[in-house]
Protein: (2Fe-2S) ferredoxin domain-containing protein
Amino acid sequence: MKRPAAQTAADPCGPALILCAGHRCSALLRRDPLADHEEQLRQAVRSTSGAVMISAGCVRACALAPVAAVARSSGTGRLGPAVWLAGIDDPQRSLGLQRWIRAGGPDDGSRPQKNLPPVLAGAVIAVAAPTSMVQSRR
Structure:
């Protein structure tokens, strides 16, 4: 007789915030001493069940800086497609992103932009695999 799989109390799925940690993006996120957007995003991730924050090297989108991506984590270590956002140092966008993360982020792993808050609609620069914007260095 086969035993039923053990159930876990916590849902391992959640939003994954991929934050560009390149020089320009990092500087822009920290330039306002009254609103450290990076720290505020970190707090949003910490307070959200199943959420993870990934610091990426420069994603080569400096003209649109600062940029971040949000994807759905499956709980197995795999990420679904990500919605890439520009200008996340804008106070309205930063707050909208924090609220979206706290609300659980994308609710459809295959279409992360489906439940995107309206305040972030103008920030979308791409919907793609999280690594698709990263160029290899040679």
